[in-house]
Amino acid sequence: MSFIWAFLIGGSLCVAAQLVVDLTPLTPAHTMVLFVVLGAVLSGFGLYQGLLKLAGAGASVPLTGFGNVLVQGFIKDVGSKGTSGLLTGGLSAGATGLTAAVLLGALMALVFSPRG
To answer: Could you give the number of structural domains in the chain?
Structure first.
């Protein structure tokens, strides 16, 4: 059943993003920022954790999940380090995903020849 919820919720988030791109004058970059902020706001109000429990990767993999990771990092670091956690929390929480994206992107650039 968890796979079904992951598919339905993750797919719904992706469909919503595609509809924003198709039906509004927003660019894909604006849409990406919108969904990261949406995830951050939902996380800040404590609503995203329930979605994560229900959908698992269906909620953590889309961009809204990245917004959630940033806010949870801020909350954790502010609780342990004080106001300096506002500067370090999001980066420390998202470091693994960002590092993987950069390294895998560099690897793909080395393996494949882009055509201009």
So the answer is: 1
Q: How far apart are CA 87 and CA 80, in angstroms?
A: 13
Question: Domain for residue 91, yes or no?
Answer: yes
Q: Quick check: is 77 in a domain?
A: yes
Query: Using an 8 Å Cβ cutoff, are 31 and 39 in contact?
Result: no
Host domain of residue 27? 2-111
Question: What is the torsional sign of CA 6, 15, 29, 70?
Answer: negative
Alpha-helical runs (H) found in the chain: 2-23, 28-44, 48-55, 57-60, 63-81, 85-111
Domain membership of residue 116 (yes or no) is no
pLDDT digit string, tens, across residues 38-78: 999 999 999 999 999 999 999 998 899 999 999 999 999 99
